[in-house]
Amino acid sequence: MDPNESKKWDMHWYDWLVFAVPTIFIVSLGLESAFGTTPGPGTAAHRDFRAVAHWFDPVFFQYNLIMTLVAVLVVPSLALSYTMKMANRKECRLYRDVPPERRGEIRQRMGRRASFGTYRGSVWLTTVVVLLGSSILLLFKPVSSSCELGVDFSLGANMLTMGPFMELYETNRDSYYSHLVRNLTAFQFGFLGAYVYFIGSVVRAYFTMDLTSNTFVDGTIRMIVASLLALVLSFAFDLLLPHELDVIAPSTAAPSDVNAGTPAPPTPPAGEEPREATSPEGSGNGEKLLSKQEVPFPARLSLLPLVAFFLGFYPKRAALGIERIVVKLTREIIPAMSYRALPLSMLAGMSYSHELRLEREGFDNIENLSNADPVDLAIRTCFSYSQLKQWIDQAWLASHLREDYPGFAQRTGITNSEELHCFFSTCEASHTDGVEQLLAALSADTATIASWRLRLNTLRILLNTNSSPQENKHDLTEREHRAPDIARPEAGTGSPKSQTDR
């Protein structure tokens, strides 16, 4: 264990850049907000990130900077703390649990995880994604006019943000900005939901000694996919709110285009119409706030952040729900595909989070898990060797019994292949037919007894066949240890063949 203790402090100087670069960037924005001068009417505006420091109140902006810095630095901090404390604890636990003949593999493979260099690429990737997402969520402010401080979307937006509503830029600027704010809201809260789930999964992996580079890569992909999924599905809100979005901001459409069930906005005083018509960009912020307060805000739009957060927190379930809806709609066009694989939920002690963890390692059903190596999975996951050995033995028995496995385990109390092999061995030692005893507990129907008898005899043969190579390997290992002791007397007394001839 001593080499790993010294290796955990072996951190190259460029590894500290993952802490230094975000810190320098955020601190420079804070200094610009505190000591920089806001560009006035006669001065040129900043054309770089320094302009962000003057979009908000200085105290409020610096508070957002602190939250952004904490959200970004939590990623490399957890990776560094894990390599310093938790990696060696997992190695000690596995060294006690696994069989003695495979302990050398544990020390060799776990020694690599005690270095920050193992997490370098994945931590950098996650840090950059979190910095970009948190900046959009906390630092950027969309505005609809160049006279205001913020991201000026009056110059236009990209196709990813607007999609088919890009044509509103030339026809209806108010509706264009309304769709833009809605799509940005979905994107931001989708990222927020994925980030909250990522932090929870990283903290769980930290305390269960399961923090690997794959954890950060999986979280990064989740944040990207969830944000884009929420953004794409935000376009479907027009199907639910076809006309209410037009009520939020006044438009140039005719009154007949508005839904009859939607109340029309109150008509502004006659004295204010010429000022808004002649100088829309020069009107004050107070007049705009007053006009927006007069228009009733649709309550159903408040569900958009909740739905986007749910898509970010549960992107897999959201994608599964969308897939089921599409399959149901295209059932007559595309034939449905069925799979005979058994789910991992059939195993005792399996939960949804355990299924996700095993699925990340490539074991998404019982048939796959029955061929897994428990020592290899114990190194790669948070589960103990004994727990994985039990699940793999259960998966072997369930893959042979198929849908009858739950009933077999409930009626006989035998849950895995090792217990079944022990049962058959005990019955054989006591000169008892174990198959007949199991048949008495399984079924009283004569029509199914013959099928069960054949299946149980098949399982007994397979268990004896699988246990024979392991016993031969164990005997070979013992003979290798005893070989030097047997060879020494032969060297002094001559060959065994010469003694026999005499």
TrEMBL record:
Keyword presence, Isomerase: no
Coiled-coil regions listed: none
Biased composition annotated in UniProt, kind: Basic and acidic residues: 471-488
Keyword annotations: Membrane, Transmembrane, Transmembrane helix
Tagged with keyword Transport: no
Transmembrane segments: 12-31, 60-80, 117-140, 186-207, 219-237
Record region (Disordered): 255-289, 467-502
Organism the protein comes from: Nitrosospira multiformis
Name recorded for this polypeptide: Uncharacterized protein
